[in-house]
Amino acid sequence: MNWGVIGTGNMGSVLIDAWLTNGVIEEDELWIHNRTLTKAFDIKEKYKDVNVCTTPEKVVRNADIIFVCVKPLQIMPLLNELKSHLNADQCIISITSPISVTELEGAVPCQVGRIIPSITNRAGQGATLLTFSENMDKTMRAYLKQSCRLFSVPIEIDESITRVSSDIVSCGPAFLSYLIQALIQAANDYADLDKEKGMLFAEEMIVGFGKLIEEGHYTLATLQEKVTVKGGVTGAGLKVFDEELGNIFYHLLEATHGKYYEDRDKVSKQL
C-alpha cells in the first residue's frame, strides 16, 4: 500500500522517520505534502525516493492511507477540499484529539481512524493510541495495527479517554524533559553543578531508567521502592514531593483539557 502524509511538521516528520527507519513502508511508497514545500523537500533530502507532492490532492490521488498531520482547525477545511478525490477503499488517519472519529467519518467518503503518536516512536519505542471507526474494514484495521507494531506499542483506546491518554503518551516526554531540566538548573543554582555535566548525568539516567522498565526488571512503583532506602537521602527528597507537588498534575490536566475544549468549540463551528 502507498501511504501519504499531509503536514510534515514536528509529528508528521517524526512519523515519517519512524516508518522509514523501522521498515514499515519503502521510501517510494510514501507521498508527502506540506503547505511550506521546502519542509517536504527537506525530508526528500534525507529519503531520496520519497514522493513530494505540490498539492494535498496529489497525495490523495496516489496514497491508500493518508495521515493528516495539520493543526486541528485546519483539518475540516482540508477534508472539505479533499473529499471529492477520496474513495471508499482509502483511509484517512488523524493524529489529533479535538475532532472525533465519528466527525471524521461524517466529513469524508472513506474509512477513518485516529492514531496519536509519540516522539518516542522515532526510536521505535513508546505507545501509539489507536481509535478506529466501527465501519473500518477488518483487514484495514489489522493492517494498521500491525504496521504500528513495527515502530511502537499500539494500544486501542475508547474515544472518551483520548485527551488524558495523549497527555501521558504524547505530551509526557515534553513534561518530563521540563522537570528534569528544572532539576539540573536547581543543581546548578544550589551546588554550582556544571549544567552540561548535569545534562549528561540526566540523559544517561533516563536511558538506564528506560532499560530497567523495558527489560522488566522493575515497574515504576518497584523501581522507586528499590532506590528509596529507609531513612536515606532519596526518601528525604520524596518527602519534598509529597509536601510541595500538591495538585500540580491535576492543574496540568486542567490546562491541557482547557485547550482541548477551546479547540473543540472552534471545530464545532466549522462542522
From TrEMBL:
Every Pyrroline-5-carboxylate reductase catalytic N-terminal domain range: 4-97
Keyword field: NADP
UniProt-listed Pfam families: F420_oxidored, P5CR_dimer
Residues annotated as binding NADP(+): 6-11
One of the GO biological process terms: L-proline biosynthetic process
Transmembrane segments: none
Ranges of residues in domain Pyrroline-5-carboxylate reductase dimerisation: 160-260
GO molecular function, one term: pyrroline-5-carboxylate reductase activity
UniProt keyword NADP, yes or no: yes
PROSITE patterns named in the record: P5CR
Cross-referenced PANTHER family: COME OPERON PROTEIN 4, PYRROLINE-5-CARBOXYLATE REDUCTASE
Similarity remark: Belongs to the pyrroline-5-carboxylate reductase family.
Descriptive protein name: Competence protein ComER
Organism in which the protein naturally occurs: Salirhabdus euzebyi
